[in-house]
User: Fold this.
Amino acid sequence: MIKGINQKGKGKQKRLQKLLNSICLQFENFRTESSSADLLLNKIYTLDSCQNIPSESSKNQPIHEKMVRNAIVQAKDQKVAEIIKNLEACITDLTWREDKFEFYPQGSNLGARYCESNLHTQIIGPKGSLIQTKDLMVGLFALGSWTLYRDHHHEAPELYLNLSEKSAWRFNFGEWQNHCAGSLIWNPGMQTHATICYEKPFLAIFAWLESINSVCEVVASDDHLLIEEQLYTLSMA
Assistant:
């Protein structure tokens, strides 16, 4: 039993708790090698899921559900199989949102493909489907295939657990490196980072450990348009 997580919930709460439990168990594998994973788990385990439980009501979100189900079908790595199984069971319990300048200043140049294919949901956070808190944000982030998430930074330190089979990342405009499902990505506060997803959609657990109301800022780069053109060409091949 995971400390701090109520095991006696029913319906929606029980399904979401199982999803959170499987996420925590995956992060447990990184405790000894990642101080950020250790910090995240300690924060989660001090929360009380018996308090601040959101309403049981949920909206029908067929377009969002279709995109996320497509990402789930293609996330086949056994290292994250338990998370995927529990996510599939509670897709409609989660509130999925497009980032319509919720995290960025109005008018930020995020690229057309990002704007039309991004989704996120909070399990824990100010709008958490399971636990509502202003001190921590844990959820899921999805992108459609052939998408560049342009270089950006934010004050909030951020942890990603990849669920997709392959995505490319660069940090502070360094070399692009591929990361597989089950890998951990740590972004210290204000580190510039970018992501590319290829023929399969991108799906990941994300966590903001503090400063969760901070604003993201796109960091311009001369190669953004070139990368997006190359991805578009590949998508049409």
Remarks:
- Helices lie at 11-28, 35-45, 62-73, 81-89, 112-117, 224-236.
- The two ends are 49 Å apart (CA to CA).
- The longest strand covers residues 118-125.
